[in-house]
């Protein structure tokens, strides 16, 4: 972290947690505006760090959330997710054998996987009233949904449009209804009825990391936490 006024280094910190936290926050804020009222079941495809953080953040925003259904190809990762999230998120975790099974009866579906070669979400399982999204852009979602749902949301339109490469969004770039910022400031509406199907692709951008990093830096100073690093000799060098 550097001072924007002088360029002086302010802090050195691990950005892995920052990225995981701000990505999860974007998911949670989207759910606040786009999940249907009383949403109680969340589906997560991919039970790694982003999946865990996404559940924790969403559970903070949606107090009605009671159950998380997961699909994960690695059994040990699924078991760890279940143990950790039942303890820390306070929800029931159900490990499912297929994505379709994990989506059955769900209100929110999030894919937290990798750079996929083809879509993995079954279009017929994305029912009216569901909210969904992917952290791997639109790679997990078939074109029938990308171009067939009621609304598509993103966090930063210009950046998302730059991802218009083969395989990122099947069938080409979808039409975006609003940005996350427009939902927050009330310029545009998120969910307007209980039947809408809404997708959100929050690609993420560095300003989010910087904002969270600045907050952490300020809180650390207030609490006297951290180690001062000498960047120049105390004595004159000549």
From TrEMBL:
One of its GO terms (cellular component) is cytoplasm. The keyword Oxidoreductase applies. The keyword Oxidoreductase applies. Its EC number is 1.5.1.49. Keywords: Oxidoreductase. GO terms for molecular function: oxidoreductase activity. This is Delta(1)-pyrroline-2-carboxylate reductase. It comes from bioreactor metagenome.
